[in-house]
Specification:
495 residues; mainly alpha; 3% strand; four-stranded mixed sheet
Length: 495
């Protein structure tokens, strides 16, 4: 790159080194323990070609670490590209104070979306390469026309890897606008036009690719992908409701405020609002700017959950919420504002802001490790249950070596007991809920972890209907008659 436009600064070096080391420490439990979830069972090896889900470039970015589920390598690459992305965020917003840089890095690195993505280690590296490309697109888009064109292509690649990068790009631009308004700077419409060109151009390239593939091949119904672009007044209203509800549930636990996470979020928002009010009362910020900032903050559920407006039936994973930590930058902007140095009230708010942001950062680190502790227990309990199942299957196959098919009735997860407080004391996260829950995941687990060579039935419903009486007479696991052989097929009844 042209050294006149982009240079490696000391701040970049510090941010990268601290980001990488802190991310590895925060997620060390996950890095050194090969923990699996239900999707991991399908991806011991896979080319990551999810074009049917609109992720056209995923397999290319995922090829860097090979198509094997190399758990430690994938997550190490993820940590590197997450750190590179955080470097760009710090540079874009020109955060100067090292303490502020440290707090934001820890908040971002420990946010639930990161632990959610890390639980899908087989694809985490591709997601964080696309995360980096999204931020790089925003970073270079204002340099010159050629960089702007390059930014359009980078964003297209990022969207083709994970569509949620659209919300990351949009939220970045919104927070850039908030920072400028807080500092009473000129909005620099030329720069914002370039940001808009990058986002619209990248999205347009993706939509063209999306429509061509949809018309020629077709798209999956999973996650509401096939509904993308179905937009009318009804879907917009529904999307707005979903966005507000999802934001309230995740950030405030639906206003129950029973846990530290949502209490700290409430304190943080009150801090921001009180500080902005003081700004406007002391004429440190223009009233017009104050009004715009309040409006942008009030509208945050809509751009934070923007994908609802693109695909009305989308299922919003926590993995898609990598843009939410950017909102904590507003608190960092407060700490970076020089007007706090003159009057006592600003010094007080400065101290309060440091305490609140520190508590948020530390609490997120704790939450991350609670997630991993739960996932570890699920792995241990699943292994214990499946080992017992494996022992019973081996006994059957000693006497009937031709038996190689498996049919599971019910959900094995119902026999894995976990402490209920895991579901009530931390924000909901995906990828850490279960491992085996039907005949496919059970067969994959038995084959991949316990050395079996079983296959699932192709005509399950017909088989169950024909043998309904005999199957209904079976008891539930772990009673002796909860497993039996019918027509060279092992039947296990869990429910």
């Amino acid at each position: 790159m042209d050294k006149k436009n982009i240079t490696i600064t000391e701040r970049m070096k510090f941010t990268f080194i601290f980001s990488l080391s802190s991310t590895i420490i925060i997620h060390l439990f996950m890095l050194v323990n090969n923990l699996k979830n239900h999707d991991s069972l399908w991806h011991f090896y896979g080319d990551m070609d999810l074009s049917s889900s609109g992720r056209f470039t995923l397999k290319y970015l995922g090829s860097l670490s090979s198509y094997f589920d190399l758990h430690y390598l994938n997550l190490l690459i993820s940590c590197i590209f997450l750190s590179l992305g955080l470097v760009l965020i710090i540079e874009i917003f020109n955060i100067v104070n090292k303490k502020n840089i440290i707090m934001f890095i820890v908040i971002y690195a420990a946010f639930p979306s990161v632990s959610g993505i890390f639980s899908y280690a087989f694809t985490a590296d591709a997601y964080y390469i696309s995360f980096f490309l999204t931020l790089l697109a925003i970073y270079i888009s204002t340099k010159n026309i050629w960089y702007n064109i390059g930014a359009v292509f980078l964003l297209y690649v990022a969207l083709g890897t994970y569509q949620a990068n659209l919300t990351l790009a949009v939220t970045m631009v919104v927070v850039i606008l908030i920072q400028r308004l807080m500092n009473n700077n000129n909005l620099d419409f030329k720069s914002f036009i370039k940001y808009i060109v990058t986002i619209v151009g990248g999205l347009l390239l993706y939509i063209i690719h999306f429509k061509i593939y949809q018309n020629k091949v077709g798209l999956t119904e999973y996650g509401g992908i096939n509904d993308a672009g179905v937009i009318n007044f009804e879907t917009i209203y529904l999307a707005a409701q979903k966005a507000v509800n999802a934001f309230n549930i995740f950030i405030f636990n639906n206003y129950s405020f029973t846990n530290l996470f949502e209490k700290l979020n409430l304190l943080y928002i009150l801090l921001v609002l009180i500080t902005l009010l003081i700004f406007v009362l002391t004429s440190k910020i223009k009233f017009k700017n104050f009004t715009l900032i309040i409006m942008l903050i009030g509208l945050c559920p809509f751009y934070l959950y923007l994908i609802y407006f693109v695909s009305p039936s989308v299922f919003y994973h926590v993995l898609m919420l990598q843009n939410i930590p950017l909102m904590y930058l507003i608190g960092i902007f407060i700490l970076e504002t020089n007007i706090f140095k003159s009057e006592i009230i600003y010094k007080v708010i400065n101290k309060v802001a440091i305490i609140i942001l520190f508590l948020i950062a530390f609490n997120l680190v704790v939450i991350t490790n609670i997630y991993y502790e739960k996932l570890s227990l699920i792995n241990n309990y699943t292994n214990s249950l499946m080992t017992k199942v494996s022992y019973e299957i081996e006994n059957i196959q000693r006497n009937s070596p031709l038996v190689d098919s498996l049919l599971v009735i019910g959900n094995p997860t119902t026999h894995i007991n976990l402490v209920e407080s895991y579901n009530t004391k931390v924000p909901y996260n995906v990828g850490i809920g279960n491992i085996v829950f039907n005949e496919y995941t059970t067969t994959l687990y038995l084959n991949n972890f316990l050395g079996h060579e079983l296959k699932t039935m192709d005509i399950q419903s017909e088989f169950v209907e024909i043998n309904a009486e005999e199957i209904n007479e079976m008891s539930q696991w772990p009673l002796s008659d909860s497993i039996k052989v019918i027509d060279n097929t092992i039947i296990i009844r869990f429910e």
